[in-house]
Amino acid sequence: MPKSRIRKKADFTPPASKQATNIKLTNRSWVAPVMLALFLIGLAWIVLFYVTEGDLPIKSLGNWNIVAGFGFIAAGFGVSTQWK
């Protein structure tokens, strides 16, 4: 039985390489300190409210001081989304 012909495969040519685009990263060195500061301010606000039995930080806010403390913490999480 005769052998079939072997087909010659075309030489591989890699696809054209794309030019890398320059990504301009801004300096975000402020993010981590601000994030940690907001976390600590919020934590200190809530702890101070409980330790002083509602007299500090702002007596007229009453239990809304807890919301203010968690607001600082939430702002810290908001700032953390900017961290790269």
Question: How does this structure look, described?
Answer:
The chain is mostly helical and 84 residues long. 45% of the residues lie in helices and 0% in strands. The chain contains two helices and no strands. It is rod-shaped. The relative contact order is 0.17.
Q: Considering DSSP H and I runs of 4 or more, what fraction of the residues is helical?
A: 40-55%
Quote the distance from N terminus to C terminus. 68 Å
Question: Can you tell me the residue ranges where pLDDT is under 50 for at least 5 consecutive residues?
Answer: none
**Rounded to an integer, what's the Rg over CA atoms?**
30 Å
Strand-residue proportion: under 5%
Content-based structural category: mainly alpha
Number of discrete helical segments:
2
> Can you summarize the main beta sheet?
none
Please tell me what the overall shape is. rod-shaped
Order of helices and strands: HH
Strand tally is 0
Q: Give average pLDDT, whole number.
A: 86
Task: Provide tags for this entry.
single chain, 84 residues, 2 helices, 0% strand, rod-shaped
Provide a brief overview of the structure:
By secondary structure, the chain is an all-alpha fold. The chain has helices at 31-51, 64-80.
Secondary-structure blueprint:
Layout: H1 31-51, H2 64-80
